[in-house]
Amino acid sequence: MLLALLLPASAAGGTYTVTQCSSRETTPGGASWERSTDHYQQRSRCNSGEGLQVYHDAPGTGTGQYGAWVWRAAPGTVFTNVQANASLTRDAGHRGELVAVRADGSESEFGGEHGDFRVHAIAGEFAQFQTWLRCAAANCGVAAGDSAHAYVKGVLLRTEDRAAPELAVVGGALLFDGVVRGTCALDLSAVDRGGGIRELSATVNRSEIASDVLNCELADSFATALVPCPPAAGTSFALDTVSAQFSTGPNTVRACAEDLALDGAPNRACESRRIWVDNVCPASAVGGGAKLTARIGRGHRATTVRSDRPGQVTGRLVDVSGSPIAGAKVCALTRAKVAGARTVVAATGQTGSDGYYALELPPGPSRRVYVHHVVGDVVLARHDLDRLASRAHPTLRVVPRRGIENGDRLRFAGRIPGPECRRRVVKVQVHIGLHRWQVFRTARTGHGCRFAAHYKLRATTQTASYSFRALVSEQGDYPYEAGHSAVVARRVTAAR
Fold first, then answer.
1. Residue 286: its pLDDT value, please?
2. From CA 489, how far away is CA 487, in angstroms rounded?
């Protein structure tokens, strides 16, 4: 019979059921023997199936005196269900009892008097479970045949752990403040005042990369101790940044500790750290560099170029004394200003005899730029550069090219730079007066980043020249700054 243990568990924390003095756990386990006088004696006969026993063997015991087996919930836990197979009798003033005690000290007695073993259960929130034999009369004696007793076996304590673990240490070379590469250590340790630490684990970018499941006192789907898992645990994971869970660029490392939950979800404590990984820049055969400088274009931290033109990164590599390092490899990494963009090698080069280098970045979208010098698994990095901003430069074609008259239809077509170029707004403008551009058609890009628009000439009464251009403004996650096409001029004559 399971009775109260079939009741649903609370959702407050991880739950596990402790078995004591049963076919799965034949020792007293977490029970403590307590008595107020040595008139009460105990026997531990779990192995024979007779249970944990309390009996009385001396006359003259005063009222309220007792002997008891007691189970106390570990700090941070409560018993939500108690089930026990008990034989309880009363004689010569002694009374056998099963008692569940709440945190405020109030008691609930459960189970009736009978000589044979029967299953009793109670549900609630309890700090203790006790099997008593106590003197309920003014003066208790010794019953003939030792018939006054309290025997218990098959104890099941459904335990709810409400105390989350605490991470004591999250460290190691993996969490180095600079750029990491190769195999690095992640050191974890945690403590728990409930059921103990069941597992230490690490995830990288939401994918589990390592775990350490600790040895706990378990049998089948039961715990065999009130605190079945170690109250403190530590481990060190050797994590290879080349593994699939890592990517070059920023990564999120999450370290977690979990306690025991054989039902429901465990309590968990986690800490997340951001690290920067470089697994792609080629290593330099020449070392000795101690300081790496870098600048983008003519600016120090940022510059803007047209989307169809390259950018440039320049700088110098020197040793601790400031002397140049010649022939050393330097790498430029870029990450486009696009959600989920990967960090890629954009350019590599070598330092000259004076330690200076120049790297040409291919045309493309706005992007972050990082400069690295790698020797072995050690990365000398410059990440204080802001970004290479790219100004959109669309193409524009206007047809027909010649022989245009008032009343004809002009067709405008072109392409904007990618990526993320679908469904972008392109405005076709005409030059009005000395300094004003006026929008007269708006189009959206489709497949292949292309756009198209039409316009019928209606008001040209004499020969005139018109200047057109395509304008792309800044738009959401489109990784370009506002820019326009080259100007296209067309000559239009009045209709004959």
1. 96
2. 7
Q: What backbone phi and psi angles, to 5 degrees, belong to 173?
A: -65, -25
C-alpha to C-alpha distances, 235 to 169, 186, 200, 214, 489, nearest whole angstrom:
10, 8, 8, 10, 71
Average pLDDT (256-282) is 95
Chosen domain end from 326, 361, 391: 391
Tens digits of per-residue pLDDT, 381-428?
Answer: 999 887 899 999 999 999 999 999 999 999 999 999 999 999 999 999
Helix (H, G, I), strand (E, B) or coil at 6: helix
Tell me the per-residue pLDDT of 449-493, one tens digit each, with 9 for 90 and over. Answer: 999 999 999 888 889 999 999 999 999 899 999 999 999 999 999
Does pLDDT of 67 surpass 80? yes
Would strands 343-350 and 329-336 be described as parallel, antiparallel, or unpaired? antiparallel
The pTM of this model reads 0.82
Say how many C-beta atoms besides its own lie within 10 A of residue 398's C-beta: 19
Q: What are phi and psi of 5, to 5 degrees?
A: -70, -10
Question: What is the chain's mean pLDDT, rounded?
Answer: 93
The three-class DSSP label of residue 448 is helix
Q: In this structure, are 302 and 425 located in the same domain?
A: no
Span 213-255, pLDDT tens digits:
999 999 999 999 999 999 999 999 999 999 999 999 999 999 9
The boundaries of the domain holding residue 321 are 291-391
Q: Are residues 10 and 73 in the same domain?
A: yes
Look at residue 222 and tell me if it is in a domain: no
Boundary (domain end) residue, out of 126, 146, 161: 161
Q: Is 425 helix (H, G, I), strand (E, B) or coil?
A: strand
Q: Are strands 66-72 and 179-180 parallel, antiparallel or unpaired?
A: unpaired
Contact status, residue 183 vs residue 241, Cβ threshold 8 Å: yes
List, in order, residues 6 or more apart from 385 with CB less than 8 Å away: 294, 295, 296, 301, 302, 313, 368, 369, 370, 371
Give strand pairing partners of 371.
332, 382
For residue 409, the tally of other CB atoms under 10 A from its CB is 11
Least Cα distance to 364 among 333, 394, 392, 395 occurs for 392
Cβ-based burial of 145 (10 A; exposed 0-12, middle 13-18, buried ≥19):
exposed
Burial of 50 (0-12, 13-18, 19+ CB in 10 A): middle
In this structure, what token pair is assigned to residue 303? 């510059």
134 and 31 in a single domain? The answer is yes
